[in-house]
Amino acid sequence: MKKLVTDVVVIGGGTTGIGVLRDCAMRGHRTILLDRADLAQGTSGRFHGLLNSGGRYVVSDPESARECASENAIVSRIQPNAVERTGGLFVVTPADDPAFGDKFLAGAALADMPVQEIDPAQALAREPRLNHGIKRAFLVEDGTVDGWQIAWSATASAKQYGGQALPYHKVTQVHHSNGQVTGVAATDLKTGEEVMIDCSFVLNCAGPWAGQITRMAGLPPVAVVPGRGIMIAMNHRLVNTVINRCIPPSDGDIIVPAHTVCIIGTTDHKVDDPDHLVVPREEVQQMFDSGEELIPGFRQARALHAWAGARPLIKDDRVAATDTRHMSRGMAVIDHSQRDDLKGLITIGGGKLTTYRLMAEHIVDAMEEQLGQSHPCRTGDEVCPGNEPGHNYLVTHRLKDREADRMTSPIICECELMNRSMLVDLLKQNPLDNFDDLRRQLRVGMGPCQGGFCSSRVAGVACEEGVIDATRSTGLLKLFLEHRWIGLWPILHDAQVRQAALDEWILHGTLDIGHVPSPTSVERDPVDDAPIDETGPTTMEELPPGARAPQPATTTRRRTRAPRSQAANTPKETK
Amino acid sequence: MFEPASYESNLLARASLDQCVKCTICETQCPVLAVTPLFSGPKFVGPQAERYRHGLVVDHSLDYCSSCGTCTLVCPQGVKIAELNSVARAAMKKGHTPLRDQIISRTSFMGKAMKPVAPLANAVLHNSAARWAMEKTLGIHRKAAMPTAHSHSFSDWWKKHTPPSAPTRGKVVYFHGCAGEFFEVETSIMTVEVLEHLGFEVITPTQGCCGLPMQSNGLFDAARKHVRTLADQLGVEPDAPIVASASSCVTMLKHEAHDIMGVDDESLIKVGSRIREVSEFLLDLADHDDLPLDFSPIEMTAPYHAPCQLKGQGMGRPAVELLKLIPGLTVVDAEATCCGIAGTYGVKKEKYDIGQAVGRPLFDKVREINPDFAICDTETCRWQIATATGATVVHPIWFLHKAYGLG
Amino acid sequence: MTDVIVIGAGLAGLSASIRAAQAGRRVTLLTFGLGGLQLGQGTIDVLGYTTSGETGAGGSGPGPDRPVARPFDQLPGYVRAHRDHPYAHFSVDQVREAVDWLAGLTPDLLVPGDGANHVVPTALGAMRPTYLVQPSMVWPDPTSVAVVGPRQIKDFYPDLAAANLEKTAQVRTKGYHIDLPARPGEVDSSPVAYASSLDDPAFLKRFAELVAQAIGDEQAVCLPAILGLRRTDAWRQLSEILGRPVVETLLAPPSIPGMRLNEALTTQAKAAGVRVVLGSQVTGFESDGRVITAVTLRQAGRDQNFPASQIIYAPGGFESGALTMDSYGHVHETLFDLPLVGAEQKDLLTGDYWADQKLFTVGVGVDDSMRPVSADKQPVYQNLRVAGGLLPGAIRWTEKSGDAIAVTSALAAVDAVFATSAPQGGTN
Lengths: 575, 407, 428
Description:
The complex is a heterotrimer. By secondary structure, chain A is of the alpha+beta class. Among the domains of chain A are: 83-144 and 227-310, D-Amino Acid Oxidase, subunit A, domain 2 (D-Amino Acid Oxidase, Chain A, domain 2, 2-Layer Sandwich); 397-564, no CATH class. Chain A has helices spanning 15-26, 62-78, 100-110, 120-126, 147-160, 210-216, 281-294, 336-339, 356-371, 397-405, 420-429, 435-442, 455-464, 470-488, 495-510; strands spanning 2-5, 8-11, 31-34, 50-51, 83-84, 88-92, 115-118, 136-140, 143-145, 164-166, 169-177, 180-188, 194-198, 201-204, 224-234, 242-245, 254-258, 261-265, 269-270, 303-314, 331-335, 345-350, 411-413, 418-419. Among the domains of chain B are: 4-93, no CATH class; 294-403, Rossmann fold. In chain B, the strands form 2 sheets. In chain B, strands 2-1-3-4 form a 4-stranded parallel sheet, with helices on both faces. Chain B has a 4-stranded parallel sheet with strand order 6-5-7-8, covered by helices on one side. In chain B, 50% of the residues lie in helices and 8% in strands. Chain B is an alpha/beta fold. By secondary structure, chain C is α/β, with parallel strands linked by helices. Chain C has 3 domains: 2-41 and 260-418, FAD/NAD(P)-binding domain (3-Layer(bba) Sandwich); 49-105, no CATH class; 141-244. Helices cover 28% and strands 21% of the residues of chain C. Chain C has 10 helices and 20 strands. In chain C, helix 7 links the parallel strand 9 (220-224) and strand 10 (246-249). Chain C starts with a strand and ends in an 8-residue tail after the last helix. Chains in contact: A-B, A-C, B-C. At the A-C interface, helix 7, helix 13, helix 14 and helix 15 of A face strand 4, helix 4 and helix 9 of C.
């Protein structure tokens, strides 16, 4: 058992929790953040990548729009390398009511959100693939943002102020006595070690999982209504500007150019369990249809990968619980000293990535109010480490970097241009990482081949560098391929079918991966891992991907059969 | 950045990058990658790098691509790899094309400029001091293959030429290209004589440059203008086949102007669908038992090199099939990818060594099969092979002309 | 001008072309790009693993598969258990003769079969069963193996391969590196660059010296499959210098052994008089409803019709795009829109990566003369035959069966052409 002492424990390593960690640390609180998985592996890493100009709220919620407009500028400034200033367009397609555009302009004026109506021809000149029948177009300051990079650079900033982030630490209990929080118990999932942290304050930033945390404190659960949305990444940037449909929020109304891909989103369906998210075929069809409305030929373009994320909405009695889109997107702060007579615990729900910094500011203000303190928030003033002030991300960056160094370091992931030294540096820094952890930082395996060529190279490099032994490396390789497939099979069509078949030829046909011994010691991943029921799926709808283990320590048997011929070596469950 | 109009044309090739499954076939066949690691290879600069560009080009090493088109040819998935590279190169060079690239990309200008002073021009092109100066000032390698200037152009000959009085077949429009006008005059004359011998009425409209050298040097606006003009010129006889002896120019008209530069004028599409390589045209006659086979034997074994631009037309090797019909003649396909000249690539100072290395397997093959005599459809490739091996290199029409007893 | 049009230049298309041309038919081979041989492993599979056909322990899917020692002995039983398998169209002798025919075509490149499968090491450390191997791949049954590779190749990691081979091959292994780029200064040398360099005797000698310095007293040496592209004896020379057997280990594409095989067969085809048209896609066809009269080739600038008397269609399966699933989930054969077997199954794909995906068993159903047939078993076109990856009923990468299916079906298609038509002209 490891013992730690701190002032504040933040539970949840999404952007909200990390923003809070950074803010607490900058205000001088000793703070430790815990997450049962990797940083930003939940909702923060499972969205479409929009840095909102405010345009999406401008009609329904001008106050949110105002916040977005101002936070958009701040995040672009303090974390420039995570943000691409793509600009955004709101377009009225032939199927839409042009009059909504007037409401849009009026709302923008009310929210002080910069907007410019442009001639549809100008919009088409900028984005030639757009539906040529668009009737109106509005230029806004949307950008795109990498949720993982936001999380890591804010974490790096927090570290400079003494904050500590512990991913893969699953909270098992929130201790309290006499109406005051006293500590948090957790398990280090990578080593199996128990960790006890003494603290006086816990900030529950677990988003869709916030209810589970309040239960661990022995309190009546907070009613969280996770809203599941699916996203599909397309093989290349069909557009270089964020394209929004100028209509009241609906399914499939946005295409976001993020890194080398563009992402269409999203849907919204109430789910009971944020660990059981699916990508239903009919929603995939819905996205393809919506894509056609914005970009004719969208169905013939190559879809790479799909995923689902859960909106962290706290139940709001003002609207029906089943209609999550119309709930306020603002954040909900539940002070448990008022709700449950327990001091030192605040639960946060709702919110959006663009305003994560502002939300953190409010949360820490609320904590300090309870503690009778007041330190100024400085998170908007300082550029996070690893960022070059004033230099926003451009999609050309990696190509430029590789142009400079490809004669000195081999390129391991050719699709996403990750070279060997990037991989080795991270491996040595985080020797316990699984390949998905590496992927989130390096984008390895996220391009067209989806790991077909690069994943066995990663296994080989990890082994050659002496960071991961051959047995574990082989196991992690297999696990990585299982996880890639979860996001592949629901969208598999045309070019991606060819890719999947070639990948099968390589990995199974030539390399015979199914008959390489399976290790018995690879831990399953608490979030990415899909449980497959004893009976196995019988139709696509019955077992959509993105389905997750209810608990990492599940006893469900994961696979109906082992990787080929290795029945005796079925991977063991998570400890 | 591209103007919107040309950006739109970029989309043609760009859309094809979705077909890439990273299979590596293009990399295994790329003749430049085979000889230098300085080039990151067709898959890298093509479908991979394109995902990182949007008109903004940061990877200057893509200029090592010779535009030979082998990658597109061998790709089993239909990725327009070479075309993607050409578009990216044009974006990269927009506004700062070196003077050298502007000069060598204007074949007809060179031809016209050199014609009145042909002996002098030839002396300069074959004088080492002058070539040294050209290398220093223009970046044209001192040893690079150069055309031989002629005092008489094809047009000079045509003006004095008397066609047969009673053609027995229909009309054909003859397209000789700039090189055929100024440098490869004999090839042009032989082509006309063979066509007339077969009974065709040959029409030679005024014709300018197809724009290919400009295109391959990234000068798209100029290239578009030229190809449009040429399409109008060649379209004079709407029903007649257009026959050509300049295979790289044929490629430009058949598909490159459309695929790379997005030119989709109806006149171009029509001309592109009617134009034939002379070997392709004659083989088609043979396949329909419509070509007289009264050839005199030619006892010779000669290597044949299929130029990249001709291979890129996706019609196999019509010259090989055609020349098989001549008794006594053994034509050995050298099965080489590229001669290394790739239009104007191999003459540039910084590319010369790569071009020579690319061509080496071909040169070796030529020396092995027949060190004195070789066959190739494209003029720049003939100059390259001749300069490197010392062999006489002729267009396939040379053999037909001879076998029909015309020369 | 052409008796037989073959579409596709993979193993099936090349085999069909060579067989027909050697028998005196005028053959035109149409291929969009290079065929898939150089993406494969460069050996000839017949049957590497069988699945029991019984239900697995969990009640879903087939049980664990077993390695096959003598494929021809097991084929009859395997076909009885898998009645829709491509092999169900052939006798065991037919398969054996087809494979022997191929081995006879390329005697320098393929070791003649003796009825037993070989096992070949792979870069991930599996011992992969296959039937015909290249001479550089014969496993010498050592008790200890040195696994060696240059640091500059990114698809071969000796430590990983060695550790896994220790279990799969049950030998003592150790991984070693040498430091030798294929070309001076290169950090990222492709297998092609190495293979070309190893064609050069001086480079080969340097390579061998470094390997000799690196390794211990192991009985055999596993090297990546990069041992020469144009010369086929590089492995032998290395073996002589090192004084012990050398074994080529299979890598991800590009496959040098596959390139050797592709080169050998393409050369054979051209030597036999096959007219090869590379780089244009067959995009359509003309038919009178019963017979296909021409196929349409999309050449630069225009569509060109190739009149056809007999057509052998060998374009590959899902990996080539000849079979595909569109965005609505419908499966198609993309050129002739041929009827498919298995496409109507409900669960074509599942989320379990290790399960067999039924999608990849979908294909074009044929009669025993390889003519595509409709649901009522009638030939769709009298003169159209298919071969290779289009045939339904097998996941070839799992079974390790694709090559013999391709060759056998190609020869069966050609033989059926011979049975129905005399050559229309002499060789050209």
